[in-house]
Amino acid sequence: MSIAKQVFEWLENYPYLKWGLKNDFVNFSSVARKIQKELNIKNFDAILVAIRRYQENLRLIENTKIKEIIKECSLEIRTKINVYVTKNMDFDVLKNIGKFNLVSGKEWYVLITDKKLKLNTIKYEEEVVEVSIKSNKEIENCPGFAAFIYSSLAEAGINIIETYSMWTETILILNKKDLANTIYCLEKIGIK
């Protein structure tokens, strides 16, 4: 694996460093020494070059189509949402619960609804919030949109309980205590 790829992968694990690189708050030599020690890479200069390239890539992503799409996004918020994770879904339950979202994985079903249910669950979250980011159809041709949103929230210390998307909607399920900070964070990056 190339030195650049190793450095990029290492940096991907540190959202606060990504923020620091985007905002010129990082001492490149200090970060390079840390990477050199952890990854046991001898070529210090190659690490520095890779960090600078990574920074350029971050700025390119931030200044491209993502920003254009974000300007046209809107938020929709629903409170008192309940999330149920189950191994076996009783589809008869869905007939009487009104509005819901059901996400099917290989092993689990995740049911999101505003109704409180008694289901045989592996895990559940009640009284959480749903933040829906509505974008235009250009999102289909915009790599990095979700990563940009998720990184921004991670940098703000916000934990996403569940997330899924449906074409032009990116949906986040969060704890109620994180709602104000989430709205602030999303508005700060341009979503109104």
What is the total domain count?
2
| Sequence of strands across the biggest β-sheet | 2-3-1-4-6-5
Radius of gyration: 20 Å
CATH architecture of the largest domain: 2-Layer Sandwich
Give the class-level CATH name of the largest domain: Alpha Beta
Going by helix content, strand content and strand pairing, the class is alpha+beta
Largest sheet: 6 strands, antiparallel
Q: In short, what is this structure?
A:
This protein is 40% helix and 25% strand. With 192 residues, the protein is α+β, with helices and mostly antiparallel strands.
Structure, explained:
With 192 residues, the chain is of the alpha+beta class. The protein contains seven helices and six strands. It folds into two domains: 61 residues; 120 residues, 2-Layer Sandwich (VC0802-like), CATH 3.30.2130. Helix 1 packs across helix 4 and helix 3 packs across helix 4.
